[in-house]
Amino acid sequence: MNGATTTRELRDPGKPASLRGSSPECPNGAELRRDALGERLGILCLAAPALLLVLVTMVLPVGWLFWLSFLADDGSMTLEHYRRMLEQPSYARTFRTTFEVSLLTTGICLLIGYPLAYFLSQLPRRAANLCMIAVLLPLWTSLLVRTYAWLVLLQRRGLVNTWAIEMGLWTEPVALVHNLTGTLIGTVHVMLPFLVLPVYGSMIAIDRDYLKAAANLGAGPVRSFWTVFFPLSLPGLATGALIVFILCLGFYITPAVLGGGKVIMVSSRIANDIEIFFNWGAASALGVVLLVLTLAFMLIATRLLRRSSVLGGAHAP
After folding, report:
1. What residues does each domain of the chain span?
2. What's the CATH code, domain 89-315?
3. Residue 175 DSSP SS3
4. Fewest CB within 10 angstroms: 35, 160, 190, 203, which?
């Protein structure tokens, strides 16, 4: 290493070597630039198969979906499908039902999943692993099988109604399927593991010394939970809620079977446009609008979470 390079490195140690070497004072600047370019090309070649896979499986299908949404029945370009969504109230009801089911499912999963994850986090590791198997067990069963199992259990002469009448909870069969109630029961059962897993992972990562420090400072168990444990578990809770909500937006099988055609979500409307009316343009327009709304919701949620984490870090001791 020559004296000029050593002097420049000492003068500006924070600047990358590739930038330091590009100075006219360094005789090896051109060689360093060639090495940096070769390194970038090598990284690009290594990433090329993954980029090609993303292009084929994600970018091209989404682009094709956008293109179909602007095609009329005669092949010309039109905004008819989007204009129809604004003019017909049935589309607004479909989107309202979709977001209503997604929000209710997310809320019920939060009420059930957070206490369950907290209970698992307080168990010994071996017992928690055994209980976690029970949480993951529904994921090993086909979604269609689970949905029809709920249809059998919740029908008017199903096991739930029979036991409830025998125990005196009600005197005649209650409609638990082919309505919003049955749809929520099925969707909550399917989505609950997707909330428990990130919340449980966030809880077991919390250092228990924080709770001991809070107890040494005079905080009781309840206050320690709400002021220390609960805020630290919020990232996992927010992640799980976001996953559940986004997955519910595209639900098809469970609402179609347990809703009985009375709970029409966007996915069911898309299926009807293709299977019954063979209208790919209308179905594509619905898919595009749902995709845009989902991306907008994810962007808003991400910014809110980032802002809350920044504010929480600002108030941290």
Report:
1. 3-69, 89-315
2. 1.10.3720.10
3. coil
4. 35
